Amino acid sequence: MDPALLYELLGYLASALIVVSLLMTSVLRLRVIGLAGAITFTAYGLLIEAYPIAIANGAIVFIHVFHLRRMLRARATDAWFEAVEVSPDSPVLRRFVDFHAEDARRFQPDFPGIRPEQLALLVLRDAVPVGVVLAEVTGHEARVVLDYVTAEHRDLRPGRFVWIESDAFTSRGVRRVTTTAPTDDHARYLDQVGFSRAEDGVWVREG
Fold it and tell me: Where are its TM segments located (predicted)?
């Protein structure tokens, strides 16, 4: 293959990686894919002897590595999670949901909004609100209408705490939880926190 064509393809690959990284909602994925793109661009710059490109992207590599190390250290540190019930009229809850509404609807576009009859749980990480769960409870069954965590804490740990480790629902007598997954990202999340997809497309968690 012509080396010039190979270099050109490498440049296209680097550009594609950078674009894909910017589409990520997870900061960790953004950093990892962005790092791959910066490394590829550095190699591209060296191969075509465009040293300003190589130097700039080499610096970006170090920036991504720095932030990735900090993020991974933070993940390795023990965090304290809580699921605290609050009133649907809580100003803190309403401010949190309003502030993150646009991001939340990217994953759950059918979210109907906060209603007085809902069970509202604020998910805290080291006493800081990082997520919210809203559900309509009828007897021993709950239907989740919103399960949201902010992007910087979207590492599955808050979700696993709520659905696997805590008794946020079982302590209230709930034995069956249902919800929907309007997007593929939310479906993957539900699968990872113990929900199963039923034949009618509804996601269910028993117990």
Answer: 9-29, 41-66
Residue type, 141: E
**Whether residue 168 sits in one domain with residue 67:** no
Residues 99 and 63 in one domain: no
Radius of gyration of the chain (CA): 21
The domain in which residue 63 lies consists of: 3-76
Could you read off the pLDDT of 3-18 as tens digits, one per residue? 888 889 999 999 999 9
Surface-to-core class of residue 111, CB atoms within 10 Å of its CB (0-12 exposed, 13-18 middle, 19+ buried):
middle
Whether pTM > 0.90 for this model: the answer is no
User: Which domain CATH number covers 149?
Assistant: 3.40.630.30
- Cα 37 from Cα 14, distance rounded (Å): 5
Same domain, 69 and 144: no
Are residues 105 and 63 part of one domain?
no
- Please name the residue that has the structure tokens 């894919």: 33
The DSSP result for 65-109, as a single string, is HHHHHHHHHHHHS---EEEEEE-TT-HHHHHHHHHHHHHHHHH-T
